Every structure is written in C-alpha cells, then in structure tokens.
Amino acid sequence: MFKQTQLTIQFITLLAIVFSFSSCSVIRSVGKYPSKKQQAEFALLSNYKDGTFRNFYPTDTLLYIRDRVRKEKTNRKFRMRPKLSKEIPSIKTNLIDTSFSQPTLIWFGHSSYLIQSKGYNILVDPVLSDYASPLFYFNRSIRGSHIYKAKDLPPIDMILITHDHYDHLDCHTIRKYRKKETNAIVPLGVGRLLDHWGWKSNKFQEVNWGDSIQIADDIYLVSTPQQHRSGRFKKKDRTLWTSYVLDIHGCRIFIGGDGGYNKHFKDIGDKYGPFDLAVLENGQYSVEWPKNHSFPEQTIHTAQELKARMVLPVHWGRFAAAYHSWNEPILEFLPLMDEIGIPVTFPRIGEPYTIGDPPKREIWWDFD
To answer: Most buried in the list 42, 178, 257, 322, measured by CB within 10 Å?
Structure first.
C-alpha cells in the first residue's frame, strides 16, 4: 500500500512538472472543443449530425482485405519506437539559404512536409517535436528521423492542417508560429485549438469541404473530402478532417492527409485531376481501423482514381502507430505501383524533390 502511494505521488509530481514548465502542458496540448456557438453553426451543415462530423459515404463501400486479417494476427507485437539496426538515413538540407524556383517538397517524416516555390513556403501538418502525443515519452520519433526543428526552416507563409490528431497537429510546433507573419488554414473546429494556443483570430481561417481560397498570387487551395475521424481526447469527431487540392505556380498537388479508401477519391479525381503530385497516406494501417487508414492495396486505387502523375507516400518513416514494421508500407506499396505504371518518388527525410523531376528511387529504407 505504501509503495503504491509513493508511485501515485511520483506520478502526480511528474504531471505537475509537465504542467508547470512546458509551453504545451498535457492540458494545453489536448486543447479545447468547439464552443456551443460553433456547434450550432455546424449543425446546419450536411456533413455534421448529432454533434459530430460525418464522412460522406457509408463505410460498407470499403475494399476489405481478408489476407490482412491473417497477416496481422501473426504480427501483433507493437512497438512505440522500433529498435532498428541503424538510424534512418536522413539529409539535413540548408532550407534557410536555399530557394526553389519550381514547386519543391521536402519531407520531414510521417506526414509533415514543406512545399516551397518562388520564395513562398507552405508547411503541411508540421510535427517538429520528437514525439506525437501529449506526453513526451509516448510515440517518439524513430532514431534518425527527427532532424528538423522550426529554427531550421525558412519563414513560413502558410500552415495547412488536415486534422487535429497529435501526429498532424503539434502544440509545440504550432505555438512557435503564433507571433510570426504566418497564416494558417485549418478544418472546421480546429481554429479553437489555435485560439487556445495563442494565435490571433485574423491569422487563421477554418474551411469546410468545397471551400476554395486564393492564398497568394497564382496559389489556390480547395478543401476536399476525406474519410477519417478526429479527436485529441475522449470526445471524437467534434472537428472536421480534410484533404486539399493545391494549385501553386502551375502545378497541381493533392494533399491527402489521413484517410481510408472510398468513392470520394474518384469524385476528387474527376473534378480536379489530373495531379502533378499526389501526397498520399501509406502507413499506420490495421484491420482494427480499416475505414480510417488505407492499406497499400487500397492506396494504389486512390492514385489511379485521382489521376496522379506522380505519388509521394507519407505517414511512415517516423512514428509507429500500427502493428506493421516501420518500412512495410513502402516495401509493399512500391511493387504494386510499379506494376500499374504510376511513378513513385520516395526521397529521404530532408531531401528536396522538385515536381516534374524524375522520381527519387534510391532504396534507403531496406533494413530492420
């Protein structure tokens, strides 16, 4: 009994330290839900019902993969931080002194990346902390994958957030930009979090599916549907999740965020395709959540239906949130894409890829 009491005191003390000294304490990181006024406004929308946002299509239209059930049962060991034989071979590019005249993407691992073109910088789902959770120990980066911090990036003009999960919306990172000349576009309800983290209301804009914005000269953005869910604590789906169509200086990019496979991809491809580059989720899938994330076999259908001319697979290589090995997504995805003939580029973390260039094809990930 005494030992248990001691452990409880130690845990409370640890929490007190986290609350006191962190710019994003556990409570602050969790954030706030949309206000009652916002909820009343959301209630008028077609994708909001009974207090939560909803996906467009019923999930029974999903491609269900039976072989995945058998495979996952044999690989149930889950590691929050895989122990690899060596570090991820990342590249530390000097992004502050480098300028790209054509739309160029620099991946920071998982789903965070920078899009730069002609001096304009767009930061997508930035998680520049060493972990993707409200507690510093959980869901830490794989060794070698956390090499960039906010100070390593050029001045950011626009931040795009696809949804509020911790591996896409990081309190520590976002708060670093609250006093800078940076704007943000976020799904409905997520603005409540930015407001809670010190952002001024005139620096961010919330969007619903179908909303379009001209964010700069020759740079346009459309919020498009995605099949996923949201939530940073117990209450789920109180904020929206989205994908984006980005037109930047003559190139069209699909920013996928997270999501399961469904008919919305064909809708987007028919209306906005073809895409010069589709940045697609490929990783952290499981038979336990088949409607929220796509298996590699499903992502190839996504690429086809979007009419993608080039694909960059993300949502892997940094954080582990599923039962598969850290590099299984690319090991399985690449042969499938080569078979159907859609090029895939897989630059190392920090290695620039300019749209229109030949794909990056160096196999840097084939180790355990």
So the answer is: 257
